[in-house]
Fold this protein.
Amino acid sequence: MYLRRHRCRSLFASCAILCALTVMALPGREAAAQTRHRLGVAGKQAPSWPQVEWLNLPTEIPRLDISDLRGQVVYLFFFQSWCPGCHAHGFPTLQALEQRYRDNDQVFFVAVQTVFEGFGTNTKERAIQDLEDYDLAIPLAHDAGEDGPSAFMRSYRTGGTPWTVIIDRRGVVRWNGFQIDEERGTKMIESLLDG
């Protein structure tokens, strides 16, 4: 009798664990919505940019901050050099949008390597090479994250990489997330330029 009860309890415990894992793996709309609210800072004032190493800036400008870009729409792209998604869709979208708005001084693009793993691979040299490979002559911040997740990641509450943030002319984050394609990015930027 004990053995049968023990097996039933074990079976029940196994089913409970399986159900919990299934619920976590396939979140409902409510769970997904809660997760989205925990990540990112959409609808809030864009946080000030932390002290990081800046590259690709004119020599007279030592660093950038979001407050320097008021009045412009800012497209902020977070990446890691070894991130497959960054190269599959993040960089190509950034490249297409940057080329589209290259002559528009009301749109400003910034790339930030937010290192949170692969510290020996996600170097500033690799980040510079990534920008060159995609023909991007835009400011680059290398946030090495030596004491854990990068400061940019913490302040913008990113979910990892690739992560994109689009900030309006008043410095309010209007979009943030893992994937944005050229069409959606164009619509978002156009609406912020018109607004």
